[in-house]
Design brief:
Helix content: 25-40%
CATH topology of the largest domain: Dihydrodipicolinate Reductase, domain 2
Shape: elongated
Largest sheet: 11 strands, mixed
Bound molecules: nicotinamide-adenine-dinucleotide, L-homoserine, sodium ion
CATH class of the largest domain: Alpha Beta
Number of domains: 3
CATH superfamily of the largest domain: Dihydrodipicolinate Reductase, domain 2
Distance between the termini: 49 Å
Mean pLDDT: 96
Length: about 425
C-alpha cells in the first residue's frame, strides 16, 4: 500500500463531523478503493472539548486553522469553516500556496474567489475540489465536468438550496409558518450560519455561479447573478400555485446564448407535471442540456451532514487516487469572460397576485395597465366578495418580455385600488 493520505480538517461542525464519521466507518472500504489509508492528522475548530462521537486523540489540535494549513504533516486540507473571506480564505490560500490539495464545501468562497483559487492550485500542481459546495451529496460537479465533457452545455437549471426547498415543501404540505420551518431546517443542519443567505437566494446564487463556470467554461461571475429569495412567498401564493397546477420552487437558471450568459435565482412556478416539481424537502435537482446527450437530471439530498460528507470524501478519494483535474474543467487562464445577459432580456410567462379594493371598475384598470404594455392575460381568478375591502386577484400571462412586465408592474403599483405591492412570480415550463 502507498503512503497514507494525511488529512487536516479545519471546521468540525455539521459537515466536518460528518466527514470524520465517514472516514472512520469506511476506513477499510476507502483503503481498498484507493490503495491508501486516509488518516486525519490535524484538526481545528472553535471548541476543542465538544464530543464529536469520533476519537480524535491521534490528530494534532490547532487553535489556529491557518497554522493547520501550513502543517508539513498534512497533504490535503479540508476547509469546512465557511465564509468568503477571513479564516476560510486564508486557510485555502495558505494550503494551496504550500502545495497542499484543498477540498472545500465553501460555495461562498468559490463564487467570489473561485477563479483566483483555481489559478493558485494550478501554479502549485494541486487539486482544488468542491463537490460538496454545489447540491450537497449529488455528484454534479463531477457529472458536468467529466460525465458531460463531450458536450456543449447550453443550459443548467435546478433547485440548489435545500433549506428553501424544505421550507416551501413544508409550508405547502402542512400549512406551517415560514419561521417555524426555517428553525427546523437550522436544527437539522441544513441552513447556513447566517440563514438569510439561504432565504434571500444568495446561497443558491453562489452555487449557480459555480455551476455556470463548470458548465460553460467561463470565469465565475457571482456579481452577474440576478438574485431574489423566498421571503415574500406567502401561503396564499402557494395555495394559488397548486390551484393553477404549479409548484413554487426557488430555482437557479443559467443559459448560454449568442447574447451571452444569463444567470438568475428567483422563486418560480413550475408545472406539477415537470420532473423538478416533485423534488421536495431537502432534495436538490440539477438539470443540464448538452448538445449530444440532451437533457440530464441529477437528484439527491442537497444539504445535511451525511450527504455533504459523502461529497467531501469522494473528493478525497480522487486525490488519494492521484486524480487532479482543473477545478472548473479547463485551465483557469482559458476560462472565458462572457457578456452577462441582463434579466430584462427574459421572455416568458408570469403569475401576478394583486390585493385590490373590491369595487366596480378595478379590474378594467388592471387590464388597461397590462394592455398598455402589450401584456396578454392567460387566466384570471377572483374569489369571494368583500365590497370596499381588499381581495386577491390572481392572473397569469402569456409569454411576454420581462421589461414590459416590469413596466406594467410599476403602473399597477401606482393604482389607488391596489393596496399592497403586487406579487410577481415567473413561470418556467421545463
Ligand atoms: N450544512 C450543510 O448541509 C452544508 C452543505 C454543503 C456545504 N456546506 C458548507 O460547509 C461549510 C461548513 O458548514 P457547516 O454546516 O458544517 O457549519 P457549522 O457552523 O456546523 O461548522 C463550522 C465549523 O467551523 C468551525 N470554525 C468557525 N470558525 C473557525 C475558526 N476561525 N477556526 C477554526 N474553526 C472554526 C466551528 O467551530 C465549526 O466547527 C460552510 O462553508 C457551508 O456553507 C454546508
Ligand atoms: N444551506 C445550504 C447547505 C447546502 O449547501 C442549503 O440549504 O442548501
Ligand atoms: Na455536489
Amino acid at each position: 500500500m502507498t503512503a497514507p493520505l494525511r488529512i487536516g480538517i479545519a471546521g468540525l461542525g455539521t459537515v466536518g463531523g460528518g466527514v470524520l464519521k465517514v472516514l472512520e466507518r469506511h476506513a477499510e472500504l476507502l483503503a481498498g478503493r484507493t490503495g491508501r489509508r486516509m488518516v486525519v492528522t490535524a484538526v481545528s475548530a472553535r471548541t476543542r472539548s465538544r464530543d464529536r462521537g469520533v476519537d480524535l486523540s491521534a490528530a494534532r489540535w490547532y487553535e489556529d486553522a491557518v497554522a493547520l494549513a501550513a502543517d508539513p504533516d498534512v497533504d490535503v486540507v479540508v476547509e469546512l469553516i465557511g465564509g468568503s473571506e477571513g479564516v476560510a480564505r486564508e486557510v485555502c490560500e495558505t494550503a494551496l500556496s504550500r502545495g497542499k490539495h484543498v477540498v472545500t464545501a465553501n460555495k461562498a468562497l468559490l463564487a467570489i474567489h473561485g477563479t483566483g483559487l483555481a489559478r493558485l492550485a494550478e501554479e502549485n500542481g494541486v487539486a482544488l475540489s468542491f463537490e460538496a459546495a454545489v447540491a450537497g451529496g449529488i455528484p454534479v460537479i463531477k457529472g458536468l465536468r467529466e460525465g458531460l465533457a463531450a458536450n456543449c452545455v447550453t443550459e443548467v437549471h435546478g433547485i440548489l438550496n435545500g433549506t428553501c426547498n424544505y421550507i416551501l415543501t413544508e409550508m405547502r404540505e402542512t400549512g406551517r409558518e415560514f419561521g417555524d420551518v426555517l428553525a427546523e431546517a437550522q436544527k437539522l443542519g441544513y441552513a447556513e450560519a447566517d440563514p438569510s443567505f439561504d432565504i434571500d437566494g444568495v446561497d443558491a446564487a453562489h452555487k449557480l455561479a459555480i455551476l455556470t463556470s463548470v458548465a460553460f467554461g467561463c470565469a465565475v461571475d457571482f456579481d452577474a447573478v440576478h438574485i431574489e429569495g423566498i421571503r415574500h412567498i406567502s401561503a396564499l401564493d402557494i395555495e394559488y400555485a397548486s390551484e393553477l397546477g404549479f409548484r413554487i420552487k426557488l430555482l437557479g437558471i443559467a443559459r448560454r446564448s449568442d447574447g451571452g450568459v444569463e444567470q438568475r435565482v428567483h422563486p418560480a412556478m413550475v408545472p406539477v407535471s415537470s420532473p423538478i416539481a416533485t423534488v421536495d424537502g431537502v432534495f436538490n435537482a440539477v438539470v443540464a442540456e448538452g448538445d449530444f446527450v440532451e437533457r440530464v437530471t441529477f437528484v439527491g439530498r442537497g444539504a445535511g451532514a451525511g450527504p455533504t460528507a459523502s461529497a467531501v470524501v469522494a473528493d478525497l478519494v480522487d486525490i488519494a487516487r492521484g486524480r487532479v483535474s482543473h477545478a472548473f474543467g479547463v485551465p483557469s487562464g482559458r476560462l472565458e469572460s462572457v457578456r452577462a445577459a441582463p434579466p430584462e432580456e427574459r421572455r416568458g410567462a408570469y403569475y401576478l397576485r394583486l390585493m385590490v379594493v373590491d369595487r366596480p371598475g378595478v379590474i378594467a384598470e388592471v387590464a388597461a395597465a397590462l394592455r398598455d404594455e402589450n401584456v396578454s392575460m392567460e387566466s384570471f381568478l377572483q374569489r369571494g366578495r368583500a365590497p370596499g375591502e381588499a381581495v386577491p386577484v390572481v392572473l397569469t400571462t402569456h409569454d411576454t418580455d420581462e421589461a414590459s412586465m416590469q413596466r406594467a408592474l410599476a403602473s399597477l403599483s401606482r393604482l389607488e385600488a391596489i393596496l399592497e405591492a403586487p406579487r410577481l412570480i415567473r413561470i418556467e415550463r421545463f
